[in-house]
Amino acid sequence: MGTSRNFASLVARVILGVIFIFHGWQKLHTNGIDATEAYFKMLDIPLPKAAAWYSALVEFGGGILLILGVLMPLVSLLLIADMIGAIFYAHIDNGFWNADGGYELPLALIAGLVAVGLAETGRTGADGYLTSRRRNRV
């Protein structure tokens, strides 16, 4: 992977990672799991406590893993599932625009996750580093 692609992958992963870390932190500490569960219950999300823990941990931990470039396809899929849930349970009835509580942001995050999930991390991510080390040993 070329230097510009390595850099682009890193920038995308860091920006997405920071966004998800902040959202996960909000669910874990700012609002707390109990408040997140209550909000999810209000939205009629099935198993609201499990969903609150899932979204909080996947967003916070997944954000860290995105920045590090670890397990990119898996992390991206877990976060995409989280964002699909957010779209259909919290945002779809509000239309498209984020300012109106719509699904614009989670949809944009899904696009970014598809891009980084399918791209190689190159030298800027742990996945790329470990893959290149394995190739060099063979």
Automatic annotation (TrEMBL):
Cellular location(s): Cell membrane
Entry's family note: Belongs to the DoxX family.
Keyword NADP belongs to the record: no
Key words of the record: Cell membrane, Membrane, Transmembrane, Transmembrane helix
Topological relation to the membrane, as annotated: Multi-pass membrane protein
Name the record gives this protein: DoxX family protein
Sequence intervals crossing the membrane: 7-25, 51-80
